[in-house]
Amino acid sequence: MYAASVLITDVNYIEESMNILEGSIENSIGIMDTFGQAPTEQVKKQVYESIDMMNTLMPSLFVLMSVIMVLLILFAAHPIVKRFSDKALKWPHFRDLRLPKSLLWYYLITMLLALFVNTDKNSFVYMAITNLFFILQFFILLQGYSLIFYIAHVKSWVKAIPVLIVVFSLLLPIPIITTAVRFLGIIDLGFPFRETIKKKE
Fold it and tell me: Where do the TM regions start and end (predicted)?
């Protein structure tokens, strides 16, 4: 759909948006310079690197946005379907989410490629590996959150606890938290961790 709109309108909305964003940042830096509050070169470098990364990850962001939109549509249509259907429709519990174990192998292979394959940042290979790694990280993170909800259910925690963990891990810019959640996702995919928890209960 996006490609069709680009062909029809002859406007690359992503590129235009990134140009506008870069222009806004440059204007902000200029204003800060005027007031003697200019950011350091390191901060500027980090900002521009973040913009470049956003540009690189745009395909993945589109995929994730599409998935979220589909889920929202299904959620919105659920009451209508339920009204006109005789079958009882029920959403599966998030804590029961079990992604394919092969996802872990894809994740590890992509991680190795990202570490050892030296490619130019403007190349297709770099973009493909980066986007694939980002999407796989997202699903591993999702599996980690599912495990947290599962543990909370088995241990009879207050329902707000896993929700707060998810909210804080997403809102607080602390990489170690999301890394820990991804580690839980890896454990959940690679080992019979849930069965062990059940046996202990």
Answer: 61-81, 102-118, 124-151, 163-184
Contact indicator for 185, 142 with CB cutoff of 8 Å: yes
Highest mean pLDDT out of 19-33, 37-51, 108-122, 174-188: 174-188
**Domain ranges within the chain, ordered by starting residue:** 93-201
Alpha helix segments (H runs only) across 85-192: 102-116, 124-154, 160-171, 175-190
The count of C-alpha atoms lying within 13 angstroms of the C-alpha of 173, restricted to the half-sphere facing its C-beta, is 0
Closest CA to 169 of 141, 132, 129, 137: 141
> Nearest-CA neighbor of 147 among 191, 104, 90?
191
- Phi-psi domain of 118 (left: phi exceeds 0; alpha: psi -120 through 50; beta: other): beta
> Which position has the token pair 């310079």?
33
Q: pTM for this one?
A: 0.76
SS3 for 18?
helix
* Cα 148 to Cα 2: distance, rounded to the nearest angstrom: 36
Alpha-carbon span 102 to 14, nearest angstrom = 33
What is the average per-residue pLDDT within 104-132? 84
- Taking only the tens place, the pLDDT of each residue in 134-168 is 999 999 999 999 999 999 998 888 989 999 988 88
